[in-house]
Amino acid sequence: MSAVMPEPRFKSFAEFYPYYLQEHRNPACRRLHYVGSLLVLALLGYTLFTQQWLLLLALPVVGYGFAWLGHFGFEKNRPATFKYPLYSFMGDWVMLKDGLTGRIPF
């Protein structure tokens, strides 16, 4: 009889972030996250500049589309977004900063 591991519960983002990084070990997955996040920033800037507000609807598709492709195609796991949406969203941006600053491998 195999024991089922209980789902971790996190009391803070600081507790969650190591788990988040563990779910993003594959470099291709991280890079797809980075691409999605950077495209979100570019699209947001373009939307603000042009005031074409309907483009805001594309932000989640662009950001999560690249991230989920990384998880399903390379990492072979389920995105943390499904269980921890706020912490996962925060993790995307902290991981991008950590990747750009060299704290974690790009």
Descriptive report:
- With about 110 residues, the protein is an all-alpha fold.
- It has one domain (about 15-100).
- About 65% of the residues lie in helices and about 0% in strands.
- It is built from 4 helices and no strands.
- The chain has helices at about 15-20, 25-50, 60-75, 85-100.
- Helix 2 packs antiparallel against helix 3 (about 60-75) and helix 2 crosses helix 4 (about 85-100).
- The mean pLDDT is about 95.
Key terms:
106 residues, mainly alpha
Brief account:
The chain is an all-alpha fold and 106 residues long. 63% of the residues lie in helices and 0% in strands.
Range of helix content: 55-70%
Largest sheet: none
Order of helices and strands: HHHH
Low-confidence stretches: none
Domain count: the total is 1
Distance between the termini: 41 Å
Topology (SSEs and partners):
Elements: H1 13-22, H2 27-50, H3 59-75, H4 85-100
Helix pairs in contact: 1-4, 2-3, 2-4
